[in-house]
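Report of the visiting student (M.T.), summer placement. My assignment was to run the structure pipeline on a short list of targets and document each run. The first record concerns M96 mating-specific protein.
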Amino acid sequence: MDSTKPAKKRVRREKQELQHLRALAVKLGSRMEELQAADTNKSEFSTSIWKPIAERQRKERTRAEKQNRELLDSVEEQLRDVTRMKKMLHRRLLQYERITLTGNQTDDDIFADQLAHVQQAHIEAAVIFAGSEFRTSLFNGVHVVADVSSDTGVAFIARSHAVMPFDIQVTEKGFWRAFEQQGDSKARYFYDQRLLTDTVVANSYGLLFRAGRFHGNVWGKQTYRRHAADGCILIMWKSMVEPVEINGTKFSGLRCHQTGWIKLSGIKLADTVSGSVMSTALQSYSKMIVELRDHIVDRDIQITALTDFVVNSHETITDVYGGMINDTLVEEDWNLNGWSTS
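After the run finished, the structure tokens were exported:
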């Protein structure tokens, strides 16, 4: 039997298998190149879509982290201030059991004291409004400062600087009218006008107020005076307020004494075809101290409630009563100037 034939068949079969494997390898190589090219295109496409999204998310995250840090710093500072203030109040309450500032004063005595103050208060205005804050920027805020004249050891100082879009004549009339009427007459359940002249108004009142989430019941006596000098108008006051109830906390034996100044100065913003655009710069300063008139069992609760109210309600009450005064200013502007015909 010839042994060469099986060998030739095996060689031919192996040769065919090798050619098949080579063809398969070429085919697989081509397929791999196609898949790699497709993957590269897909990667580039995905990158082009997600890169701007990732960038926006990074910027938003950075902004949010910055805001959170600023808010946290602000909250921590407020907590430190409140803690210092409460410690100061507690020390003062433990150290002093003081006789009331007004003693057995009658209403006549209180109004006489207020009138004496406002008659001379214009002398202090130059010093009060000489601070750099009244020459630089617009602001509105209340601060708690140490003050030995207050039974609680602290005073509440409010300052503001704003520009009113009315001339000084309109602004003066609007504010004076608001002081004469003592806010919203519907909210008053008692009102007694003690004195009314062209330059002085004095009254006592009972008032139920509501401003945002703040509400209460207060009694008060106040005297206002206006004075023109050096090209500006000054409105000065001294008031005494006895809170009866504020945001559910009952009060007894506690009085708030406030002195305040408003300075109005005319300014020219611009010249137009129809004439000058006049406005009024408004600067204000007030100081409030607390008097503990009797032995008060729950005075810590009352003082804490009063402090929280004064500090936290300032912006809300300013917005509410500022809106009422603005309505009065609009009416006075119409009364004096009518509608613009330009």
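Residues 106-338 form a domain with the Alpha-D-Glucose-1,6-Bisphosphate; Chain A, domain 4 fold (CATH 3.30.530.20). The beta strands are 139-146, 154-164, 188-196, 200-211, 214-229, 232-246, 249-250, 254-272, 275-292. I thank the supervising group for their guidance throughout the placement.
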